[in-house]
């Protein structure tokens, strides 16, 4: 008996924390009020914004068609192109962009929050720049490192670093400098396997002019690293932190002077890493060309704000209608189920923030639908409880049997819905993926709400007194 009260208290605490996390404004305003009146210094609750998609915060959607007429590996070329565009967009500073391949030759680029559309189009359409850089001498590195420190000190003091003489020197790589060898000379990068060790390697092939330059570059860098950069960044995540940044460097050592225009990159590579490197090298070699976007759709921030407001209003009305229905038809159990439903909403919104889930209109539609589906399980349980009570069983036994006998139907229906969500998420486009993701998360959370939270509420609030007032059930 004590255990159910401990669980109930835990559910209440979890619900309060989830509610505050989902919408911390009121809590933080209350904290500010108390701090100002009482002289306290209570901190604000953690604020983490929701990630809004293109249609809710405004932005631009661009659709490109790639020229695959002279390409054999169409899938690999499109994957490489997508990687390059994604890197460019990340450099542009766009939050939560969506870059995906559509069909065989189309690339869809969604840029939420972007207002300068022409600049975005210009940036995306640039030729990927692949370069092979050689190591600087200590004498060449020192002035660059000194200038970087000088600029950093000025920034720390909030001074205008652009007043420093030759401040542009600080923008250069202090350890590597460009060579004459660039991606325009590379014809193809291929993953091959060592016939003895069966380890993956990367074979590079240059054109005739590139072969001569490559011979010169490797000749003067024997036993030295040759760094490979694409658009100024490393072509692979060498630090293993899931992103390519300044900490990464891919610089295989030159073992000897290479002639003939063909080279092999060896090392501790797995197949996935080797394929990634080859794909990005091919991207720099321009296997696929894109011109101007064939389709451009712009959503203004005002329109996105209106769409968000209407979606939230629809969700609130939907929740209110469900609460009224449950209370009218199922009375006290319906009221308890409605409280569990409100907790469910707070939990799901918190999950959306934590993952985070990029919310679109379709995604919010999936969430609103999941609110309606969340009470399906309660309806099945309460209907079964009615039948058990009519058969003369006690209230505690009726609650137990209601949950036990309704579970197979609840399990099967929700499992089927999750299968459909998985299919939509796997094969559909971005907006439908958002719908499938929010709906599936909602379904999983609704099972917790109906089977666990509602049951705890019934065990705590519906006691022996209800045997004498069955009308309340």
UniProtKB/TrEMBL annotation:
Transmembrane segments: 312-330, 335-355, 361-383, 414-432, 438-462
Entry-linked PROSITE patterns: EF_HAND_1
Primary localization class, coarse: membrane
Domain SecDF P1 head subdomain, first and last residues per copy: 178-288
Transmembrane helix among keywords: yes
Keyword Coiled coil listed: no
Domain of life where this protein originates: Bacteria
Subcellular location, record wording: Cell membrane
Residue intervals of the Protein translocase subunit SecDF P1 domain: 81-135
Keywords of the record: Cell membrane, Membrane, Protein transport, Translocation, Transmembrane, Transmembrane helix, Transport
Coiled coil, from the record: none
GO biological process: intracellular protein transmembrane transport; protein targeting; protein transport by the Sec complex
Gene Ontology CC: one annotated term: plasma membrane
Topology in the lipid bilayer: Multi-pass membrane protein
Family annotation (Pfam families): SecD_1st, SecD_SecF_C, SecDF_P1_head
Domain Protein export membrane protein SecD/SecF C-terminal: 294-459
Molecular function GO terms recorded: protein-transporting ATPase activity
Similarity section: Belongs to the SecD/SecF family. SecD subfamily.
PANTHER family (UniProt xref): PROTEIN TRANSLOCASE SUBUNIT SECD, PROTEIN-EXPORT MEMBRANE PROTEIN SEC
Function: Part of the Sec protein translocase complex. Interacts with the SecYEG preprotein conducting channel. SecDF uses the proton motive force (PMF) to complete protein translocation after the ATP-dependent function of SecA.
Subunit structure: Forms a complex with SecF. Part of the essential Sec protein translocation apparatus which comprises SecA, SecYEG and auxiliary proteins SecDF. Other proteins may also be involved.
Name of protein: Protein translocase subunit SecD
Gene for this chain: secD
């Amino acid at each position: 008996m004590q255990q159910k009260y401990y669980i109930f208290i835990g559910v209440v605490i979890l619900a309060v924390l989830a509610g505050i996390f989902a919408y911390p404004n009121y809590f933080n305003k209350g904290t500010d009020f108390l701090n100002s009146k009482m002289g306290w210094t209570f901190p604000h609750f953690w604020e983490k914004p929701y990630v809004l998609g293109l249609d809710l915060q405004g932005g631009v959607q661009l659709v490109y068609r790639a020229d695959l007429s002279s390409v054999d590996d169409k899938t690999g070329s499109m994957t490489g192109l997508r990687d390059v565009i994604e890197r460019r967009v990340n450099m542009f500073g766009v939050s939560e962009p969506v870059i995906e391949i559509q069909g065989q030759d189309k690339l869809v680029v969604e840029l939420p929050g972007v207002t300068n559309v022409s600049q975005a189009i210009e940036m995306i359409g640039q030729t990927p720049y692949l370069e092979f850089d050689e190591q600087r001498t200590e004498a060449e590195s020192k002035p660059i490192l000194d200038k970087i420190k000088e600029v950093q000190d000025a920034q720390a003091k909030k001074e205008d670093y652009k007043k420093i003489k030759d401040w542009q020197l600080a923008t250069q790589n202090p350890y590597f400098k460009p060579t004459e060898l660039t991606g325009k000379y590379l014809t193809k990068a291929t993953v091959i396997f060592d016939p003895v060790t069966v380890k993956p390697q990367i074979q590079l092939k240059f054109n005739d002019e590139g072969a001569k330059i490559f011979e010169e570059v490797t000749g003067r860098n024997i036993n030295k690293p040759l760094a490979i950069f694409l658009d100024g960044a490393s072509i692979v995540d060498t630090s293993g932190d899931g992103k390519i940044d300044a900490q990464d460097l891919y610089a295989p050592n030159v073992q000897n002077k290479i002639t003939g225009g063909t080279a092999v990159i060896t090392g501790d590579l797995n197949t996935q890493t080797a394929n990634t490197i080859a794909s990005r090298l091919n991207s720099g070699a321009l296997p696929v060309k894109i011109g101007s976007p064939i389709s451009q759709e712009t959503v203004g921030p005002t329109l996105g704000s209106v769409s968000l407001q209407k979606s939230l209003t629809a969700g609130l009305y939907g929740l209110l209608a469900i609460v009224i229905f449950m209370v009218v038809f199922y009375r006290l159990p319906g009221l308890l189920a409605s409280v569990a439903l409100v907790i469910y909403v707070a939990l799901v919104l918190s999950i959306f923030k934590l993952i985070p889930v990029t919310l679109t209109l379709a995604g919010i539609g999936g969430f609103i639908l999941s609110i309606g589906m969340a009470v399906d399980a309660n309806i099945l349980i309460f209907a079964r409880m009615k039948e058990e009570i009519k058969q003369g069983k006690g209230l505690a036994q009726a609650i137990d049997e209601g949950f036990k006998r309704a579970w197979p139907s609840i399990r099967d229906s929700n499992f089927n819905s999750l299968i459909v969500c998985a299919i939509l998420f796997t094969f559909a486009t971005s907006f439908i993926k958002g719908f499938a993701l929010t709906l599936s998360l909602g379904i999983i959370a609704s099972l917790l709400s109906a089977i666990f939270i509602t049951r705890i509420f019934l065990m705590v609030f519906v006691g022996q007194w209800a045997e004498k007032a069955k009308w309340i059930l």
